Each structure stands twice: as structure tokens, then as C-alpha cells.
Amino acid sequence: MKLSFQIKLFISLVLFFSGLFVLLGIYYYQDVSRQLYQEMSTRAKIQAEEIAIIPNLRKAVADKDIPAINQFMHQVVLHSDASFIVVGDNKGIHLFHSAHGEVVGKKLIGGDNDAVLRGISTTTIRKGGLGISLRSKAPIFDDNHQVIGIISVGYLTSYLDTITLSKVINIFIAAVLLLAALFIFSWFFTRGIKKQIFSLEPREIGLLVRQQKAMMESIYEGVIAVDSELRIEVINQAARKLLGLSQPTRLLRGHPISEVIAPVPFFTREVILENDTHDEICRFNQLTVIASRVRIMLEDELQGWVITFRDRNEIDSLSAQLSQVKRYVDNLRIMRHEQLNRMTTLSGLLHMGRYDEAVRYIQAQSEHAQELLDFISARFSSPTLCGLLLGKAARAREKGVALAFDPLCEMARPCRMLGEAELISIIGNLLDNAIEATQRSPLPHDPVEVLILLNERELIIEVADQGIGIDPTIREHIFERGMTTKRSGDHGIGLYLIASYVTQVGGSIEVSNNAPRGTIFSLFIPEMGDQARPVPTLEEQYYAT
Hints:
- It catalyses: ATP + protein L-histidine = ADP + protein N-phospho-L-histidine.
- Its EC number is 2.7.13.3.
- The chain has helices spanning 5-52, 55-63, 66-78, 114-117, 157-196, 202-218, 237-243, 249-252, 269-274, 312-351, 355-379, 383-398, 420-439, 494-504, 538-543, and strands spanning 84-89, 94-97, 122-128, 131-141, 147-156, 222-227, 232-235, 277-284, 287-298, 301-311, 403-405, 448-454, 458-464, 508-513, 519-526.
- With 545 residues, it is of the alpha+beta class.
């Protein structure tokens, strides 16, 4: 039968403290006995020496006046707690014995009289006529300082043991009461411990810890658990790898999160106490991640947070691949649709015999496409960006909207502060929003104006449409996740991603009205960290004009 943790802990505490009390009792008994013997030795010596100097007794001993000695010593015995008092002469013969008067005239026993007869006081433990005793002997001197007798004051060891035992019994009673209190305390203490560990046995806790460790290391995402003071409690291998940390987990435990991850708004106390968050784009140690934060609560008390994060580049890679495939499909569909329309038109002209018009039609179509291709390929060095702009232009034409590229457009090199994936996402989302807003405006549709200019100081992206504009009721929230003005589909993420990418690199966004209608989105992304333009407040970003 296996005992529970509570019973084992209770029995262990009881046995430990019981053994401790036994050892302390033995030590106390020996210490009390030693102190008592020392105290009684001193008392016996003082009594013997004081009695030995009493003049009347000295005269009676010198005269060996036994009746006088008896009369005087009986008075002394009445005021002493000694087990016996003995008076002897300088020959070692009894002159008085407080307990056995019949030994008067007999030899003193014990074999400890020689030193006393030489004038030296002694204290010994010897066996006498009453048994083993602690006795102190002092010499009696006459006026010529000659030893004329012996005074012996003794305490039986049985009497001393009785005193010691009575003290130990009192301590034992107190120890028993204390042990009983300890039993009660141990029981409630073990119950409290069991409650704090959720009624789990140590073996189960050990198994749970090993499972948790294995689970943490098997998670592909980075996981960090922090306490209420934002000190690291747990960090898995994936988190250390993503953050570029070489220290083992045990050395990172207890350190503030700010020592591991450069301070970002994601970890500020005001933000972290406000609410939990999921799939927020952040920047941890020069690494762009998608992070989530969930608080740990125990009995309605905040214990800390669990932060999970993953490299956004990996997700972007997969997303880019899917988006690229989708763009290819869309572009092929658009091109197929346009080519079918052109072929139908050309076929009709040929059937009608209008050969000159057919030739002019072919030349016009070829010149327009080539002109756009030449402009984009000459102004932008990134093939991916060129493909995006050509695809968006073709898609806009299919929807009855034209893209008008500003003659100042130029991006001859990659942006230092912004990756190509982020740039494609920003421009693509801005163009999609502008095209859809223009579609929803009354006919005829005005073109969407596009400016993409990279200079030494900053990257400027500006998309202006003359669409339906932004509803004032949601203008303050357009950059929030899930906020959209579109009527159908999976929307509400585009502007949120744009704002995340731009603010992470210290850029700014200005949203203004486009006369007579529509909206202008202006993005300013710094090229150099020390030359970055000031980042406006949210209110300035929303209401910039």
C-alpha cells in the first residue's frame, strides 16, 4: 500500500522532531546533572569551610568534647539541606555523624582524608556509610594553625538524581505538549502543501515537469514565461535561438525580460497590464516576429504572462509564395481575358475587311503595354516590385480603373530599413484599397495616382484616389486589426499590416482628404536611423491634412 504525500510528510515531520526531542532530552539531562553536581559541590564546600571556622566547634573538637559537638552540630544540621554532616578528629575518628550516631568513635571511611589532614579542602564522590555521595571536606585548625579535625558535608547521589529527574520530567511534560502541538501543525501544514501542489504526488509533479520541459522544447514557436515583475521564469530553446541567446535557460531564469529583449512597447507595464493580445507584429532584437501575450491567473491574482512568438519572415515566405502563385494566376486570368477581348475585336475588324483599322488597333495596344512596361522597368530595380505594379495595373484596367504613375517615381535600389516582402505588402494593400474605393465611386472613374520615390533621406509612398473616402465614424480606427469598410470577403488586416510595418522602422503615415473626394495615403519611411523624420502621434496620423 502506497502512502500519500501528505501522510509521508506528516510521518517524516513527526519522526524527525520526535528524534530531535529525544536527543535534546538526553543532552539536557546530562547538562542539568553536570550543572547540579557542580552547584552542589560548591555549596557543600562552602558549608564545610564555614562550619570549620566556628570557634565553639573548634574548641569542642580540640577538647574532643562529644556532647558539646553533638549539641552544636544538631543546631547546624537543622539549617542545612545536606544529606549528612560528619565531624572527625585529626586521627580520622568519627566525633559526630548527623545520620548515624552509632558510628561515633569509629574510623572515617572513603579513603579521602589524607589531603584534608594536611590542611587541603577536597571535594570527591565516594561511597560512604550511606552510599555513594558527593562530599566536600574541610580541615579544622587550632590557634596554632594545626589540623585538629575534619568537617565533611555531603549530598547523596540518589538525592541529586532525584532533583535532576524532577527537572527533566517537567521539561518532558512541556516537550510532550509541544510535540502534540507539532502534530497538529504538521497535519495542517501538509494539508496546505498538498493544496498548493494541486493534490499531486511528488512523482506526478516530477513527471509533469519532465513533460512540460519536453513539450516546451518540442514547440516550434519561441515561448517565454515571465512573472508579475517581468522576470523570466521559463524560456525554451526555440526562443533562445530566435533571439540569438547563447546562455542556457538556468542562467536566464530570474533576469528581467528587458535584459534579453530590447525594450519595446509590447513589454511596457502600461500595455501589458491592459489586456492580452494575439498575433501582434513586433520587433524583438532586430527580428520581426508575430507575438501573442496571455496572462497567468491563480485564484484571481496575476502571476505573470506567457509570451509566444514566431519569425514573421518564415510566415511571410510562405505567404509570399502563396501570394505569388495567386498573382500569377490572377495575372494570367487577366491577360487571358484581355487577349480574348483583343482577339475578338481584331477578328471582327478582319471579318469586316477593315484591315487598316486592325493594324492601327494592334499598334495602339502594343504601344500602350510597352510604354507602361518601359516606364516601370526603368524606374524600379526590383523585379518583384515591377511584377506587382504591372499586375495591379492590368487588374485595375480590368475593373475599369487606371493607375497613373507620377513621373517622379524612382526606386533604383532596395530600401535599407524595409524588406522587400514588407514593401510589396504595403504597396499591394494600398493599391487594392484605392482601386476598390474608386470602383465604388460614381462613374466615370478617375485614375489612382501613385508615387513611389526613394531618396537618400527616406522612402515616400503616396497613393491618391478619388473614391468614396473614409467614413468619419471609423476614421480613428482604420489601422486597427479587423476594421474594414469593405462589404464582403476576409478583410480588416491590410491597413493594420501597413501600420505595423511602418511604425516598426520609425516611419509615419499621413491620411488626408483628396479634393474633391477620396483619400490620400502618404507613407514616409526613413532610410537612415539618425535622419528619420519625427513619428507623428496617432491623432496626427489619422487627421493629417
